[in-house]
Specification:
The structure is a single chain. Helices cover 45% and strands 15% of the residues. It has 20 helices and 16 strands. The strands form two sheets. An eight-stranded mixed β-sheet has the order 1-8-7-3-4-5-6-2. The structure holds phosphoenolpyruvate (PEP) and magnesium ion. Phosphoenolpyruvate binds next to strand 10 and helix 17.
């Protein structure tokens, strides 16, 4: 038995035989051609044929995995129309090289460029560049399109899988996949999730021929890939798998159903996300909208502030993916545990009680204004709601509203189209809950952040594992603050949701409905579980 660890990009268990997927080696030589003009013509024809293939793949994917995922082939077509890419390849041909070599050079150069970018999403695009280059090269060499063929259901094990290979997998024949390379943000991973296939990337395994046909287990819960499992391990995995399948089957039936109790009370169930790709999981889970987009993730893991245009592109992408469903985007909550060097924040004794979130935004308005401009521009593309974190006073909300008006005027004077957005606040400090009657008159909605509300109400540091025992998430004080907030929201005629982890606590679902909570925003993987809990209520 051999056990390998990897990064799980889709939970679940697959048990079956290894299908070793190795791409046929394409020989690329730097041979020169005599007629560069004719070679360039050949290259452009190959690009046209590649685009025609991509149109067909788009249609196939539309049937099999839906529009969101088919969109990758449109992206590939766009990449094939990129002037820099085409000119790089054409330039190599003009210097006398053959078209295959030229495309290979351009592909390598652009893939390296993407792979070196700070942004995780952009890094994921390196695979797409390689994919389109391989497509053109295969056409130039007159090789057939590569497909994975197998009669029995198998576990695909590969160095890497391009998005076009992944999308062509016949779901009935594939149990899961394991790749040596790949990132959690790659389209391969995204598609795997949409297909519900257990998948691991970054598995450090040598792809030797003996692997082919061996029994294996892909455990997407533990991030394990086991080849030739011992009897005992195998039976443990079988038990886990059966449980997983049963759970999935039960939950699948809830898709398309309303979040309604037997006596007819309904509630919205939305999803929490941290990046653009998470919106796919939200759609897949049949979430009614996005209740919390933690926009600070756009600021993390990079060296400089995300520009207005970069942010606009991300917000627009989420709004478009949600196709008119409500998307609540929270302005950045940097500070406390979310530290970013380029903000130049000073070390603090008590960061959770310190300079964070809206406190930074109201102090360093240029950061806030950039984000608000991006948000209002994106609002044109869907149903946007903007939410502000860590509020403690009415003054803060009035100042925010003043800045919002300034931003709208600035956009108008710059001639940039802007849309409309609901404005809401997070109720995540005891102060905000206690004055929620006054705050409710200022905004369109509340969303209760129970993670911080618990920490500040119980004086329990949410990062301190030692305090887990006394961190009572059902504490009477916390529940009273929630109830008070809901009552005050409704008296002022605004809606109120819960976006902290407590929203997914099904022991409280009945109580949330009883006190009149309008919306629960939970992890995408919890949407159907909570729907099930609602529907089981009398
Ligand atoms: C919360 O505090 O409950 C919340 C949703 O925000 P975060 O967990 O990002 O602090
Ligand atoms: Mg919070």
């Amino acid at each position: 038995m051999y056990k390998y660890v990897g990064k799980s990009v889709m939970r679940g268990i697959a048990i079956g035989r290894v299908y070793l997927y190795k791409k046929s080696d394409i020989q690329v030589t730097d041979q020169k051609v005599t007629d560069a003009a004719a070679e360039k013509e050949r290259f452009l024809e190959a690009v046209d044929r590649a685009k025609a293939q991509l149109t067909r793949l788009y249609d196939e994917a539309l049937q099999n995995v839906g529009e969101d995922h088919a969109a990758i082939f449109d992206v590939h077509k766009m990449l094939l129309e990129d002037e820099d890419y085409l000119e790089t390849a054409a330039g190599e041909i003009e210097s006398g090289y053959n078209a295959v070599y030229a495309v290979n050079q351009a592909g390598t150069q652009f893939a390296e460029l993407f792979a070196s970018m700070d942004d995780e999403y952009m890094r994921g695009r390196a695979a797409d560049i390689r994919d389109i280059s391989q497509r053109v090269i295969r056409i130039l060499l007159d090789l057939p399109e590569e497909e994975i063929n197998s009669d029995e259901p198998v576990v695909i094990v590969a160095e890497d899988l391009t998005p076009s290979e992944t999308v062509k997998l016949d779901k009935k024949k594939i149990l899961g996949f394991v790749t040596v390379k790949g990132s959690a943000n790659s389209h391969t991973a995204i598609l795997a999730r949409s297909m519900n296939l257990p998948a691991l990337v970054n598995v450090d395994i040598e792809l030797s021929d003996e692997l082919h046909g061996k029994t294996c287990v892909v455990d997407g819960f533990e991030g394990e890939f086991v080849v030739e499992p011992e009897e005992e391990i195998l039976s443990q995995k079988v038990v886990r798998k059966n449980q997983w399948v049963a759970d999935l089957e039960a939950l699948e039936k809830l898709k398309g159903q309303d979040n309604i109790t037997k006596s007819g009370k309904r509630i919205d169930i939305f999803a929490n996300i941290g990046n653009v790709e998470d919106a796919d999981a939200a759609c897949e889970a049949d979430a009614g909208g996005i209740g919390l987009f933690r926009s600070e993730f756009l600021y993390l893991g990079r060296e400089t502030f995300p520009s207005e245009d970069e942010q606009y592109a991300s917000y627009k992408a989420v709004l478009e993916k949600m196709e008119g469903k409500k998307v609540v985007i929270r302005t950045m909550d940097i500070g406390a545990d979310k530290k970013v060097d380029y903000f130049g924040l000073e070390p603090e004794e008590n960061p959770a009680l310190g300079y964070r979130a809206i406190r930074i935004c109201l102090d360093r308005e240029e950061i806030f204004i950039t984000q608000l401009k991006a948000l209002y521009r994106a609002a044109v593309h869907g149903k946007l709601a903007i939410m502000f974190p860590m509020i403690v006073s009415v003054d803060e909300v009035q100042r925010i509203k003043y800045i919002v008006e300034m931003v709208k005027e600035e956009l108008a004077s710059e001639g940039k189209p802007a849309g409309e957005a609901e404005l809401g606040i997070m109720i995540e400090t005891p102060a905000a809950a206690v004055i929620s009657d006054r705050l409710a008159k200022e905004v369109d909605f509340f969303s209760i952040g129970t993670n911080d509300l618990t920490q500040y109400t119980l004086a329990v540091d949410r990062q301190n594992q030692k305090l887990e025992g006394i961190c009572d998430t059902h504490h009477e004080a916390l529940l009273r603050l929630i109830e008070m907030t809901v009552k005050n929201a409704h008296e002022a005629g605004i809606w109120v949701g819960i976006c902290g982890e407590l929203g997914a606590d099904t022991e409280l679902t009945e109580w949330f409905l009883k006190i009149g909570v309008d919306e629960l925003s939970v992890a995408a993987s919890a949407v159907l579980k909570v729907r099930g809990a609602v529907r089981a209520l009398p």
